[in-house]
């Protein structure tokens, strides 16, 4: 079909009162911004050049303290700095950044708790302390946000459920373009809740409301799509922009013939470090010239140290939390992330930039990072025997280690840089404003 024929058909649809079909097509293209980019490049966009180059005032908002040690804070810093390099003015709102007196905050908190408890007892004859706590946190944060002048911003971008809910509510009268990047799965991660409990129903509805307020939900990986769709969110609101990092690897240093295995993670049960220790205990004869470094702190640290001693793994060292990650990776050959539950771990991305031969599991968004036997090795979670086999294979084969590491670095340089992430998010802003 020639271009002018297609144009004539479209005009007939419009004239024939089937404009809704054209709207559906427009919505489809907007849900796939890369298609619009390709067509704009070919045809030339009808958007004025001045509009394309417009610089915005952007507010990044979180209920969490900022800055703090953690993935959300690192992500927001990377995004802020990247958007500023593109010429935008960026500010961050978090409870510790908003000017509100401590006694005022305490008074608001006390009043909300008291009124929520009275309401629940009068209406239901009982109350849930967890729900009262959540309502209080939302109420205090709303009181803080109300003290800000959101009218001065062109774009609002929230980074947790509470910020999405409160800015979404306040924004109903402003109608600013509001975006939401969830960094956790919300109620799906609250393992202590029974699915038939009032708390589960309450937090599930909060998750859905947070997603509904956003003009577009910018996912850090595709694994979020299924659970959010399951609770009723509209999947056409989702667009995935993989997390990128600013990581400067250091040139590899001499190992003196040793093979060094590194595991950088929080020492919590769901990170699966106990299975790494089990795996190492299955291949003792292959560890004569191997050093294993476990980097990080957490509730399971003492238990893991005790287990390593019990298994007589004298080559395993627990280094605690460290700030010299790039240097540690420059000394390493194999990176192991044995998680049994995870989302999109930044430690794996950093290991990719550092040319590590990576061994990980098929959980969460990890398969979106690692292509099995190309940029790393993927295994079943909680399978110590599989993990032992993968470790042994890479310990014994330097050529395979180097090939996997080179492939991982090439992929990271192309798709996982901070600049790549920031430009894609800016493109999302432009597409949906």
Q: Give the spatial strand order of the biggest sheet.
A: 2-1-3-4-5-6
Q: Any idea what the CATH superfamily of the largest domain is called?
A: Glycogen Phosphorylase B
Number of strands: 12
Q: Look at the structure and give the mean pLDDT.
A: 90
Q: Counting H and I runs of at least 4 residues, what is the number of helices?
A: 18
Shape: globular
Structural class designation: alpha/beta
Main sheet attributes: strand count, strand direction, barrel closure: 6 strands, parallel
Q: What is the rounded Rg? A: 25 Å
Note poorly predicted spans.
none
Give the SSE layout.
Blueprint: H1 3-15, H2 19-30, H3 33-43, H4 49-52, E1 57-61, H5 71-85, E2 89-93, H6 102-124, H7 129-145, E3 155-158, H8 161-174, E4 178-180, H9 198-213, E5 216-219, H10 225-230, E6 238-240, E7 259-264, H11 273-281, E8 290-295, H12 301-310, E9 316-320, H13 325-330, E10 334-337, H14 346-353, E11 357-361, H15 366-369, E12 377-379, H16 384-396, H17 398-415, H18 418-432
Parallel strand pairs: 1-2, 1-3, 3-4, 4-5, 5-6, 7-8, 7-10, 8-9, 10-11, 11-12
Helix pairs in contact: 5-18, 6-7, 7-8, 8-9, 11-16, 14-17
Keywords:
six-stranded parallel β-sheet, 49% helix, Rossmann fold, alpha/beta, 12 strands, 2 domains, 18 helices, 433 residues, globular
General description of the model:
With about 425 residues, the chain is of the alpha/beta class. The protein folds into 2 domains: about 250 residues, Glycogen Phosphorylase B (Rossmann fold); about 160 residues, Glycogen Phosphorylase B (Rossmann fold, 3-Layer(aba) Sandwich), CATH 3.40.50.2000. Helix content is about 50%, strand content about 10%. The protein is built from 18 helices and 12 strands. A 6-stranded parallel beta sheet has the order 2-1-3-4-5-6, sandwiched between helices. Strands 9-8-7-10-11-12 form a 6-stranded parallel beta sheet, with helices on both faces. Helix 7 packs across helix 8. The protein is globular and about 65 Å long. About 35% of the residues are buried. The model has no long low-confidence stretch (mean pLDDT about 90).
């Amino acid at each position: 079909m020639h271009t002018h024929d297609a144009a004539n058909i479209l005009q007939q649809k419009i004239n024939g009162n089937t404009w809704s079909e054209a709207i559906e097509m427009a919505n489809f293209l907007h849900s796939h911004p890369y298609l619009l980019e390709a067509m704009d490049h070919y045809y030339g966009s009808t958007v004025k050049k001045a509009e394309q180059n417009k610089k915005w005032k952007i507010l990044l908002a979180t209920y969490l303290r900022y800055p703090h040690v953690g993935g959300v804070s690192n992500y927001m810093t990377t995004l802020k700095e990247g958007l500023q390099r593109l010429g935008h003015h960026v500010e961050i709102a978090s409870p510790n950044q908003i000017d509100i007196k401590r006694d005022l905050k305490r008074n608001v908190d006390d009043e909300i708790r008291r009124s929520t408890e009275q309401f629940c007892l009068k209406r239901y004859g009982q109350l849930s302390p967890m729900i009262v706590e959540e309502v209080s946190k939302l109420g205090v944060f709303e009181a803080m946000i109300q003290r800000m002048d959101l009218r001065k911003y062109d774009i609002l971008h929230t980074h947790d459920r509470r910020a999405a809910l409160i800015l979404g509510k306040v924004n109903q009268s402003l109608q600013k373009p509001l975006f939401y990047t969830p960094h956790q799965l919300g109620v799906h991660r609250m393992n202590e809740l029974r699915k038939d409990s009032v708390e589960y129903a309450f937090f599930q509805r909060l998750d859905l409301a947070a997603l509904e307020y956003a003009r577009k939900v910018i996912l850090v990986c595709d694994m979020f799509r299924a659970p959010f769709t399951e609770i009723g969110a509209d999947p056409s609101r989702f667009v995935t922009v993989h997390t990128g990092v600013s990581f400067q690897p250091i040139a590899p240093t001499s190992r003196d013939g040793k093979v060094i295995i590194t595991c950088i993670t929080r020492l919590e049960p769901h990170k699966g470090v106990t299975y790494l220790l089990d795996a190492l205990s299955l291949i003792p004869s292959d560890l004569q010239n191997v050093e294993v470094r476990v980097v990080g702190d957490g509730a399971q640290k003492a238990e893991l140290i005790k287990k390593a001693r019990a298994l007589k793994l004298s080559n395993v060292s627990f280094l605690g939390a460290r700030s010299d990650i790039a240097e540690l990776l420059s000394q390493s050959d194999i990176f192991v992330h044995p998680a049994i539950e995870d989302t999109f771990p930044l430690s794996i991305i950093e290991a990719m930039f550092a040319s590590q031969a990576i061994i990980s599991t098929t959980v969460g968004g990890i398969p979106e990072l690692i292509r099995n036997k190309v940029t790393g090795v993927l295994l079943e979670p909680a399978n110590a025997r599989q993990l032992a086999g993968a470790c042994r294979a890479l310990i014994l084969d330097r050529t395979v280690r180097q090939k996997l590491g080179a492939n991982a670095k090439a992929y990271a340089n192309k798709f996982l840089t901070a600049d790549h992430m920031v430009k894609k998010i800016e493109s999302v802003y432009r597409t949906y404003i």
